[in-house]
Design goal:
eight-stranded parallel sheet, 10 helices, 10 strands, globular, binds adenosine-2'-5'-diphosphate
């Protein structure tokens, strides 16, 4: 299943998150994921694993063109020249000559250079070096600013989303502007989300795992997901979450958990 971008093209709805995998382990996990059917791999300069991701893709034996690669850059590169450098560095580490989707990793509003970062991505796309451009952790106020300044809307905005912290206003803005929302840490990044009684009970009813119920909720809302796992059984479970369809009542019951978790990575104060 793919999600369609407003600028044309599409992205697999389910991909593999790679933070905090590095080195040989990262290469092994990426190659295994591709062998089991993953076609979207999510990385970032900040994860220091683009090299491992690139090796994993090569080791998989699957043609590069069949893999959708997302990467991101830090605030040090929030300028038109900086984004060019960021592309060259990431493309070299990944061992590719184009990148499918490149994102501004965080708006870093105090640094106040994210409009320049966006201009840099627009230039990269015009040069054909990246297929699609987008943002990560951009809230409506940040998106309003880059769209207002450039007239170019991101294809995708990656946001921290899980049933307990689901950013409904930001997601609604993205829908209204034709921006695909993709959830990072869709499983709560290893916190106690998957032990939430409502989720555990629902999983038992569907004869599924708590992770699959949570991922099925994201998919029902039309969100992309990039769950990370280095465990083949879980990687497969996550990929197969696409087969689990929750009733509208159960989707609503999970959405009602909104507000029961606080993020320590709010884009107005956190970023790199
Ligand atoms: P592991 O890599 O040992 O499987 P997120 O993608 O939200 O950041 O969550 C990643 C965390 O969730 C990791 O700790 C990962 O551990 C764990 N995880 C990933 N998939 C599953 C799953 N299907 N069931 C339980 N835990 C999972």
């Amino acid at each position: 299943m793919n999600l369609t971008f407003a600028d044309g093209g599409s992205i697999p709805q389910i991909g593999l998150g790679t933070w905090p995998l590095v080195g040989d382990e990262c290469a092994r996990v990426v190659a295994e994921a591709i062998a089991m059917g993953y076609r979207l791999i999510d990385t970032a300069y900040a994860y220091q694993n683009e090299n491992g991701v690139g090796r994993g893709i090569k080791d998989s034996g699957v043609a590069r063109e069949e893999i959708f690669i997302t990467t991101k850059f830090n605030k040090d590169d929030h300028s038109v020249d900086g984004v060019q450098r960021a592309f060259e560095r990431s493309a070299e580490a990944l061992n590719v000559d184009y990148i499918d989707l490149m994102l501004v990793h965080w708006p870093n509003p105090e640094h106040n250079m994210y409009v320049e970062a966006w201009l840099g991505l627009i230039a990269l796309q015009e040069q054909g070096k990246v297929r699609h451009i987008g943002t990560s952790n951009f809230l409506p106020e940040h998106l309003d600013r880059i769209i207002g300044a450039t007239g170019v809307t991101p294809a995708l905005d990656q946001l921290q989303v899980n049933p307990r912290y689901s950013q409904p206003e930001a997601r609604a803005y993205n829908v209204a502007h034709g921006i695909v929302t993709q959830s990072w840490s869709p499983l709560g990044q290893g916190n106690d989300l998957l032990q939430t009684p409502a989720i555990v009970d629902m999983a038992a009813r569907y004869d599924a795992t708590p992770a699959q119920v949570v991922l099925a909720w994201h998919l029902a809302l039309g969100l992309g997901i990039v769950p990370k796992s280095s465990e083949p059984v879980r990687m497969r479970q996550n990929l197969e979450a696409g087969a689990l369809v929750l009733t509208p009542e159960d989707v609503a019951a999970l959405s009602a958990l909104e507000g029961t978790e606080v993020s320590d990575k709010h884009p107005s104060t956190f970023g790199h």
